[in-house]
Amino acid sequence: MTDTTLTLRAPPAPRRRRPGFVAMLYLYASLFIVAAIVLVPLLTTAVGGFKTLGDLRVNPFGLPETWQWSNYWDILSGARYWQMLGNSLLIASMTVVLTVAVAAMAAFALAHVRFFGSAFLMNYFLVGLMFPIATAILPLFIRIRDLGLLDTYLGVVLPQVAFGLGMAILLFRNFFRNVPKELFEAALVDGGGYIRFFWFVTLPLSRPILATVAIVAFVNSWNNYIMPLIMLNSQDKYPWPLGIMIYQGEFSTDWQLVLAFITLTILPTVIVFFAAQKHIVAGLTAGAVKG
Amino acid sequence: MASIALNDVRKFFGHHPVLHGISLEIRDGEFVILVGPSGCGKSTLLRMLAGLEDVSEGEISIGGRVVNDMAPKERDIAMVFQNYALYPHMTVADNMAFSLRLAGAPKAQKQAAVARAAEILDLSHLLDRFPRELSGGQRQRVAMGRAIVRDPAVFLFDEPLSNLDAKLRVAMRTEIKALHQRLKTTMVYVTHDQIEAMTMADRIVVMNGGRVEQVGRPLDLYDKPANLFVAAFIGSPAMNLLHGEAVAAPGGTAFRAKGGGLLPLPADRGVQPGTPLVYGVRPEHIELAASAACDTEAQIAVVEPTGSETQVFMTLGSDSLVGVFRERVADEPGSTLRLRIDPARVHLFEPSTGARIDAAAASTSPIREAVLA
Lengths: 291, 373
Ligand SMILES: Nc1ncnc2c1ncn2[C@@H]1O[C@H](COP(=O)(O)OP(=O)(O)OP(=O)(O)O)[C@@H](O)[C@H]1O
Ligand SMILES: [Mg+2]
What we know:
The complex is a heterodimer of chains A (291) and B (373). Chain A is globular, with a radius of gyration of 24 Å. By secondary structure, chain A is mainly α. Chain A has 13 helices and no strands. Chain A has a domain of 176 residues: MetI-like (MetI-like fold), CATH 1.10.3720. In chain B, strand 9 and strand 10 form a beta hairpin. In chain B, helix 3 crosses helix 4. The longest helix of chain B has 18 residues. The C terminus of chain B is likely disordered. At the A-B interface, helix 8 and helix 9 of A face strand 6, helix 2 and helix 4 of B. The structure holds adenosine-5'-triphosphate and magnesium ion.
């Protein structure tokens, strides 16, 4: 990895020219468009949370007539918001821990141990990548019911882990395969085996990919709507996406509260994403170039 | 400390044979270098000693114990890899202490062992650095330090110097040799650089195509190469090898090269006129004749002075010949040089088998017998 001989020699970098005016204009324009696509809904949601329902109907995109801080305040001071946040956090954490642990070990075996059927097993996991959750809901529900896990956190966590495993294994395996073989041999001579090599060498070297897989699993779980909807019955176990339903009355929906609620629940993931941005990019591009 | 014995060791990758029966004894404390061209199986043999490849056939023992089925850690060996294989996320000290950490050694013992190795290798001021913060030579020393810390019975090196620049390589050569003299541990060292082998080894094992061509002390290989391969491989610039046959000459027999040149033959080899031969003479054993009494004459093609000596590429008939002379030679392509060759320093080989033709009376050396057997 850092050892000189193991890195491929990169082709000489093309000479940097200052892009011309038109190119710069094009660059900035396209970046603005992409940024707008991401930011406009986020801001509309956040600002919409400060409006009254009437204001929101008349003027969905502008600034509020009067800033209704109480929308946010009511949510923050109620117990329900915190409980749902706690539920979401618990489910997401369990999903992350299980996904990372299982996928890392499976990927290590697939990357380093040659055994009968390993290619088949890998492809089996990859096929899972193409499987939409929605089509599996009914059999999944029956299976979880048979296991007696309905209306438990585990009933949500296990299917989420199963669906996240394909991607996680793929990312891990590609990363592990680029750990030089000599490191394993050195560890072997130093008195370690597969397990200690995994623990003492592979995992510490894999921090970027660990972060990537963890965050992807976390965000997927955080935003997952259908799984808790199917598996959970009691309100005190609801994660936040189900919480939105509470503001949907029979005849009208308090959209301003829904927006404020969404803003408050999305905030943690946005913060986590910004904090770990560097790792995620490093992890997703790892394996593209050996080094 | 341990001796090593290889008994008819073979290696197949699938059905593809790579080592064709290697037998070798390495004494306790000896520094043995495996040398040979790329792909001849040196690394494979070393990795079999380390336990990183399994043995297809034959037997390897280290310190009297057969180790064929032992894991690397049970063999009491340490290995230094070509690309060092340092753990990138550990400091120098942690890299060196890793084996002790896996063995569950107490902290004090780890520190003492690391401190000792660091002191031997002059690494004490680098212990807190990470491998990426070290130069190539320093990484090399850390890799050796990691081996020293384990205090193994046998050190194994696989081309440890090939990633270093020429100057550093010479310095590290001396350092490794000094290390061996200090530790007096058995060392097996792989290289394809014959200069490295000549300068460092107690004994050299010349390999080619999965076979041992010759085993011997460096100067023995230089003075008495057992066959054409070793003759061409050991020595720089390489030995001149001319094909031709023995012919009758006024003073006895001489050698007539295919290219037309006539060269003196040693009288003691008992070759009859008409015998096909390969005639070998090292460039440094060709001399310029002072008087008209010369053995042969050759034409200058290219002159390459290095200051201390002059390397001259010549043509002898239609053969080419290289000479290294102490004297300075004027760079006049096409002009004639008169040469003397001491017949005692001439090597003769059978063209068909490549085997050395020794003096008829002289007894063959035991080493050579072992090789040819
Ligand atoms: N894992 C393997 N599978 C199949 N063939 C192999 C394997 N490892 C080595 N070989 C073959 O065995 C032969 C010897 O390889 P080895 O690495 O021992 O050569 P070497 O003498 O160390 O060469 P070099 O000086 O280039 O390192 C080569 O022909 C190589 O292609
Ligand atoms: Mg090799």
